[in-house]
From TrEMBL:
InterPro entries per record: GATase_2_dom, Ntn_hydrolases_N, PRTase-like, PRTase_dom, PurF
EC primary class: transferase
Binding-site list for [4Fe-4S] cluster: C233, C383, C463, C466
Annotated metabolic or biological route of this protein: Purine metabolism; IMP biosynthesis via de novo pathway; N(1)-(5-phospho-D-ribosyl)glycinamide from 5-phospho-alpha-D-ribose 1-diphosphate: step 1/2
Any Gene Ontology biological process: purine nucleobase biosynthetic process
EC numbers, comma separated: 2.4.2.14
Cofactor annotation remark: Binds 1 [4Fe-4S] cluster per subunit. Binds 1 Mg(2+) ion per subunit.
A GO MF label: iron-sulfur cluster binding
SUPFAM superfamilies the UniProt entry points to: N-terminal nucleophile aminohydrolases (Ntn hydrolases) (SSF56235), PRTase-like (SSF53271)
Domain of life: Bacteria
Protein name (Swiss-Prot/TrEMBL): Amidophosphoribosyltransferase
PROSITE patterns in UniProt: GATASE_TYPE_2 (PS51278)
Binding, Mg(2+): S283, D346, D347
Length: 475
């Protein structure tokens, strides 16, 4: 994933941009960047943050930066913001999203006269550079932003800063948020709403799907009204959104509490008996609190996450190293585990490796039973709209490996739909196979209808593709 933050202020905005971007550190692991515009023009810094936090890399830069306009980002992949000089003038640009038709758009640029792009270390074109090139196909920045929205397959939200202000363009279907904040000295635009709370901003409003605005220290001008259709990513609330953030008026922590409550309601029907409920840190904890609150099962922390050196298990690029770090950073409290029947809530099961290893170390620490309750349905389809997962193939998903075992290599969409249906026999067989592979005492996934109820938005406004495989134009 990636996250960004922008400020248009009547005063020096450098520190606001610095801290606002730093509050997005959970969304990216490889690159961090800031661009500021002041009396001396544009200034920019980009640093590698794989081995140290964002803030430590930019402490020297913020002493040298000065200006009242600024944007910055945290990214899992490409270096940004980029500085661009074109027939539209000079501007800085940063993006959040995923371009599925990148090669097609790259060829389009070459046909329109672009001679080259700078190649990243991965051998690919920087998606943000490609977006800047597409914007420059048009006569104005607004037309360029609209052009990008019409061409990109996937998702693309943009902050573009000129010497006069900041353009903020939310993805055409609103898959990721852009939230506006306001204080006496100006405005900010952010992915995470909680990024501006300690900076003195108050919630102004959320941009609508496909909406484009122009932000100056004095005002926010609407350049394109919101579209009628929205497909915001449901995983924002379940997993990668920060607990203190609110999207579309719905807070992440509160949603996760409701998730746990509904999970408990399903278990009460079957009279599942356990001694305590625990959440896998960090995103599983709020779900577990909600479960405990309505079930009267005590909440406990049978393992504690050790974060001083490895705050995020997905930081290394190698899966083996990530698995090892995920295991090493969870330290058991054996007194809360030995001879106990534990119910464990995690945000999701993707590959199945980490939660299986967590369960194993609970058994090694003396647990009698480990019941697992993922806070979302089985992930059967790899996300093709956002870059929140490093999975390169759907066969990375434990569900698809199990389905291949049960059905063979050639599986129709109709059969996959049965595996996504919690009331089907195929679904039950898949869950039982996953339970046995991971050595869970019992396994019950969150139902999709319950998860949607936990969020509280109409189903038509949510993207649920990774669970049900339904495209944008399907009901």
């Amino acid at each position: 994933m990636s996250g960004f933050f922008g400020v248009a202020s009547k005063e020096n905005c450098v520190l606001d941009v610095f801290f606002g971007v730093d509050y997005h550190s959970h969304l990216g692991t490889r690159r961090g960047g800031m661009a500021i515009h002041g009396e001396k023009g544009f200034a920019r810094a980009i640093h590698n943050i794989e081995n140290s936090p964002f803030r430590t890399k930019f402490e020297k830069d913020i002493e040298e930066f000065d200006g009242n306009l600024g944007i910055g980002c945290i990214s899992d992949n490409e270096a940004q913001p980029l500085l661009v000089k074109s027939h539209l003038g000079s501007f800085a640009i940063t993006t959040v999203g995923r371009i599925n038709n990148l090669e097609e758009l790259q060829s389009l640029c070459f046909e329109r006269g672009v001679t080259h792009f700078l190649e990243m270390s991965t051998g690919e074109v920087n998606p943000t550079e490609l977006i800047a090139s597409l914007i420059n196909h048009k006569a104005t920045i607004v037309e360029g932003l609209q052009y990008v929205q019409s061409l990109v397959k996937g998702s693309m939200s943009i902050l573009l800063m000129t010497q006069y202000g900041i353009y903020a363009a939310r993805d055409l279907l609103g898959r990721t948020p852009i939230v506006l904040g306001e204080k006496e000295t100006g405005f900010c635009a952010t992915f995470e709403s909680s990024a501006f709370l300690n900076l003195g901003y108050h919630h102004y409003r959320d941009l609508g799907a496909g909406e484009i605005v122009f932000i100056t220290p004095e005002r926010i001008e609407v350049l394109q009204k919101p579209k009628d259709k929205m497909k915001i990513c449901s995983f924002l609330w379940v997993y990668y959104g920060y607990p203190t953030s609110t999207y579309e008026g719905i807070n992440v922590e509160c949603m996760r509490n409701r998730c746990g409550e509904l999970l408990a309601g399903r278990d009460n029907v079957d009279n599942v008996e356990v001694d305590s409920v625990a959440g896998v840190p960090d995103s599983g904890i709020a779900h577990a609190v909600g479960y405990s609150n309505v079930s009267s099962v005590p909440f406990a922390r049978p393992f504690i996450k050790y974060t001083p050196t490895w705050p995020r298990s997905f930081m290394p690029t190698g899966q083996m190293q990530r698995n090892m770090i995920a295991k090493m950073k969870l330290i058991p409290v054996q007194e809360l585990i030995r001879d106990k029947r534990l119910l464990l809530i995690d945000d999701s099961i993707v590959r199945g490796t980490q939660l299986g290893e967590t369960t194993e170390f609970l058994y090694e620490s003396g647990a009698k039973e480990v019941h697992v309750r993922p806070a979302c349905p089985p992930i059967i389809f790899g996300c093709k709209y956002l870059n929140f997962s490093r999975s390169k193939s759907e066969m990375d998903l434990i569900t698809r490996r199990v389905i291949r075992k049960l059905e063979g290599d050639d599986v129709s969409s109709e059969v996959l739909a049965e595996y996504a249906d919690p009331d089907s026999e195929r679904y039950q067989k898949m869950c039982e196979e996953i339970r046995q592979r991971s050595n869970f005492t019992s396994l019950r996934y969150h139902r999709l209808d319950d998860m949607i109820a936990s969020i509280g938005l109409d189903r038509c406004k949510l993207c649920t593709y990774c669970w049900d495989g339904k495209e944008d134009d399907e009901e």
